Amino acid sequence: MRNKMTPVYILSGFLGSGKTTLLTRLLQHWKQEGLKPAVVMNEIGEVNIDSLAAGADVPTSELLSGCVCCTIRADFAAELGMLLQRDRPDVIVVEATGAANPMEILDGVAEASLYLNIELQQMITVVDTPHLLHLHREQRAKTYRLMQEQIRCANVLILNKTDRLSQDELSEVTEIVEKWNRSAAAFEAVRCHVDLEPMLSAVSRSEQSAAVPEGAVDDEIMNTPGRSFKGGAASHDTHAHVMSYTHHLQGPLDSRKFEAWIRELPRDIYRAKGILTFQDTASRYLFQYAFRETDYTRLPQEVELRDVLVFIGEQFDRTALKQQLQKLSEPT
Ligand SMILES: Nc1nc2c(ncn2[C@@H]2O[C@H](COP(=O)(O)OP(=O)(O)OP(=O)(O)O)[C@@H](O)[C@H]2O)c(=O)[nH]1
């Protein structure tokens, strides 16, 4: 039997937006619930000051040699694996450096979930609202684009530092964020003071929304506590949020059927990877899919990994994917 999956939360947000403030709150919350959290942190620079915030009783793993998205391939999975084995946490938070590209981090966690019993729960982005408004007015391209990416990727948005905005400015910022990501559950906050339970359950609700038929999605999310955006159910003109789906395969697949199925994958799924066994070949493979190209690398026989596929894309139908993969696993 497979061990239970440890949920992983990615905490993203621009430098100084309030990630550590939120992390401290989350850790307190989980500890009060009797859970054991662990943290993976990365900082640009030599010393990680934020690790002090986690407290001595929270296992912390640090990637100090640069940004998590650059060290991610080798170190990240190894660090997570070590943390899981050594500390057996109930929940893991990856605090991404404020300058990190969230897509790379998402990709890294997806990669690690091929080898480890972890499940990416959601991406929480803390938005420094006065800073965003300032950049929006100045149109400073690079930083602005990174903030935009961080907002687009989120399933939960904390619109932080609202104490430094007037009501009009808050409306302006909300409108900007809404244009980029209408799907996430959004919470206005001062010092990341949000009701954590509704925030954490809003995470799963927005994930489930992918299975809800078009048109019902926004309705569902509009009803999540803390949702502050205006707007209607019919607005699907903006970017949907990025999501991932992990599927554990029950048995070997027919390679030709799998190939044919991959060719028909919806365009909304832009990345997939996995470990696969085929009914009609002796080897096992590491499978990669990017920009509609597939790649298979033969794995050594002794590799002890379960068969799994991870998909990353925008607002795709996870239920349909699951059903199709179950069908592909049926013996022919
Ligand atoms: N005025 C105001 N200040 C805040 C708020 N939230 C956080 N801060 C302050 O903003 C600063 C940065 O907060 P952190 O939680 O350290 O932010 P961070 O995102 O972890 O920062 P980096 O580690 O640099 O990426 C601290 O001085 C906080 O006290 C807020 O809602 N309003």
Automatic annotation (TrEMBL):
Cite the InterPro entries for this sequence.
CobW-likC_sf (IPR036627), CobW-like_C (IPR011629), CobW/HypB/UreG_nucleotide-bd (IPR003495), P-loop_NTPase (IPR027417), Zinc-reg_GTPase_activator (IPR051316)
Question: Where in the numbering of this chain does the CobW C-terminal domain appear?
Answer: 242-329
The question of whether Lyase is a record keyword is answered with no
Q: Does the keyword Iron apply?
A: no
Record GO terms (molecular function): hydrolase activity; nucleotide binding
Per UniProt, the keywords (alphabetical) are: Chaperone, Hydrolase, Nucleotide-binding
CDD domains, per the entry: CobW-like
Q: Cellular component GO terms, alphabetically?
A: cytoplasm
The record lists the catalysed reaction(s) as: GTP + H2O = GDP + phosphate + H(+)
For this chain, the family text in UniProt reads:
Belongs to the SIMIBI class G3E GTPase family. ZNG1 subfamily.
Question: Which protein is depicted?
Answer: Cobalamin synthesis protein P47K
According to its UniProt entry, this protein's organism is Paenibacillus algicola
